[in-house]
Specification:
Mycothiol system anti-sigma-R factor, mainly alpha, Anit_sigma_mycothiol_RsrA, Znf_put
Length: 103
């Protein structure tokens, strides 16, 4: 997604780190770069607004629910894989291996 105009911070960088921005998990200087980008780029601002609305909806609807420990472990494991640059695996690496099928 891009508006087609050049920006100091590229649209792909903003969209790749959108949740870090939403969760305020980045340094203030990075947040400022993103805020400037949103002022200049309406497609990215729209995507930001949509993701912010989804995040608020999930919090409102599920905020008081306890998260199962195994689900939390799976999510954190995938986040660690993505942050280490390995991407998301095709199959669930946290699941127990499937039993061999008889032929």
């Amino acid at each position: 997604m891009s508006c087609g105009d050049p920006h100091e911070t590229d649209c792909s960088e903003v969209l790749d780190h959108l949740y870090e921005f939403l969760d305020r998990e980045m340094p203030d200087g990075e947040c400022t770069k993103f805020e400037v980008h949103f002022e200049e780029c309406s497609p990215c601002l729209e995507k930001y607004g949509l993701e912010q609305a989804v995040k608020k909806l999930v919090k409102r609807c599920c905020g008081s629910d306890d998260v199962p420990v195994d689900l939390r472990a799976k999510v954190m494991g995938r986040i660690d894989l993505i942050r280490s640059g390995h991407g998301v695996p095709e199959q669930d690496v946290t699941a127990a291996p499937a039993a061999p099928q008889e032929q």
